[in-house]
Design brief:
By secondary structure, the protein is an alpha/beta fold. It is built from 15 helices and 20 strands. Strands 12, 13, 14, 15, 17, 18, 19 and 20 form an eight-stranded mixed β-sheet that branches. Helix 9 (269-281) links the parallel strand 13 (261-266) and strand 14 (287-291). The N and C termini lie far apart (51 Å).
């Protein structure tokens, strides 16, 4: 059931998305009414969290069963003995699924209120506590230890430090304040720890803050599918062209048993540090991370390679992952996006630049996987159609595992080509409530189907390079 309004978008952005989802090919196949219904369902799904929290086990350091047992004990402690089922994904053996319970409707709203920013609110809906930097406003009489109701300021209208707020706010649940209002807003330098410990959230989901950090990596389901589709092999040289924060990079290294070389690039230095920290934490030594702009990663003069550092000579890599910068319109939960149409549509040219570099850097016979966490036709199927036309030596490949649905009509791709894509589109799932009883009674096949479908919006395409460019 929808407990929150659909995602709030600028009208120009909503119309742009609608035109993509109701293009001529789609309407001709589904009918106008069904196409419109699917689009409206998508907008509602985007404002709600996925049905499962997904964690990837670092199989480099421990077995899945061992980590599953540790996690079970941890969740028992977090939820005072409430038993959460933990499922191992049948097609992604290193992935564990924990159901999200909710929406929980009988939570009594408190007179003492804390307003948080939209990003902080999104994190709370996925199991996080409220950290002090995310707090925008608190009731004037709030003290440490008070039971408070937490709300998300989805439109970004609340003034920092306000004592009350009557604008649009979405109830996220109750918690206990760790600090008084005065401590939150008068402290210099600004505090960074937990401001409100969530005890009664609308969506009950485990907190993974510092939970088994060397063994687990919190990752959306499609993001874990990507590295399996790339299928890296021990001893290969692999490039992750836009790698931060390193979830897929570390997954690639683990799948290769940390044997070979994984080069990770990102152009923002603190994000590169994060990749290095994650590699260290997970005990992976095959990763080399560089602060470098992926669009410049191709070495144009054919002088000798610079000791394995970017830029690289053409045809240097066995496999390349291009998890491209994108509009992020598949992220969930996301109650409001303030982006202009110009911002949303600005990614296609950048993605093509990066793709062109990737195609040049790939060895003949090598595999290139392109992925995004968005739902737009322009950044997904249209990019595949462009790539196949621009690079005749690239062939679209069948993907294994095939967990998502097929690609969307509208970019002129054949039905065979669409079957080779994976589009994760949460609009195929009817809205439903989840509680411990319904989870206990559900068939395992139905539960896995729900986990596969009711996730973030995402897209994956896999190419093989047939001959030298």
């Amino acid at each position: 059931m929808s407990v929150f309004p659909k995602i709030s978008l600028r009208l120009e952005v909503e119309n742009y998305l609608k035109a993509g989802f109701m293009n001529e090919e789609v309407v001709s196949a589904l009918g106008k009414e069904e196409a419109e219904r699917k689009f409206e369902t998508l907008l509602h799904k985007l404002s709600h969290p996925p049905s499962f929290t997904t964690v990837r086990v670092n199989t480099h350091l421990a077995s899945v069963q061992h980590v599953k047992n540790l996690l079970f004990d941890e969740l028992q402690k977090q939820f005072n003995g409430l038993s959460f089922p933990i499922l191992q994904h049948p097609d992604l053996q290193d992935v564990l699924l924990i159901p999200v319970i909710g929406p929980r409707k009988n939570i009594k709203q408190q007179p003492c209120e804390v307003i948080v920013g939209a990003q902080c609110g999104n994190a709370v809906l996925r199991g996080a506590h409220v950290y002090v930097p995310g707090i925008v406003s608190a009731s004037k009489f709030m003290k440490g230890g008070d039971v408070v109701s937490v709300y998300s300021d989805i439109k970004g209208k609340c003034k920092k430090g306000a004592k009350e707020f009557d604008g649009t706010k979405i109830f996220l649940g109750n918690g206990i304040s760790e600090l008084s209002r005065k401590e939150i807003f008068s402290s210099l330098p600004e505090l960074k720890g937990i401001g409100v410990r969530m005890t009664d959230p609308v969506y009950l989901s485990p907190s993974f803050d510092n939970v088994l950090p060397s063994y687990l990596f919190l990752q959306n389901l499609p993001s874990a599918v990507v590295s399996h589709v790339l299928d890296p092999q021990p001893g290969e040289k692999i490039l992750d062209l836009c790698a931060a924060p390193g979830g897929k990079t570390t997954h690639i290294a683990a799948l290769m048993h940390d044997q070979g070389e994984v080069i990770a690039l990102d152009k923002i230095s603190n994000k590169v540090e994060k990749i290095k920290q994650n590699a260290l934490l997970l005990g992976l030594n095959s990763i080399r991370a560089f602060c470098f702009d992926g669009t410049k990663a191709l070495k144009l003069d054919m002088v000798k390679d610079t000791d394995g550092e970017p830029p690289f000579l053409p045809e240097s890599f066995d496999r390349i992952l291009l998890d491209a910068p994108c509009s992020g319109m598949g992220q969930r939960p996301n109650m409001a996006c303030t982006w202009t149409l110009k911002e949303v549509t600005s990614y296609q040219p950048l993605q093509r630049k990066l793709f062109t570099v990737a195609a040049e850097l790939l060895k003949p016979g090598g595999v290139l996987v392109y992925s995004t966490c968005t739902v737009t036709l322009a950044e997904n199927e249209e990019q595949v159609a462009w790539a196949l036309e621009t690079f005749p030596h690239l062939q679209l490949q069948h993907q294994d595992p095939q967990v998502g649905g097929e690609g969307m009509l509208g970019a002129g791709l054949s039905s065979e080509q669409l079957k080779r894509l994976q589009r994760f589109d949460p609009c195929v799932v009817p809205s439903q409530d989840s509680d411990t009883g319904s989870l206990r009674d559900a068939r395992i096949e139905d539960t896995i189907w729900l986990a596969n479908k009711d996730c973030i919006g995402f897209f994956i395409a896999k190419f093989i390079k047939c001959k030298s460019t």
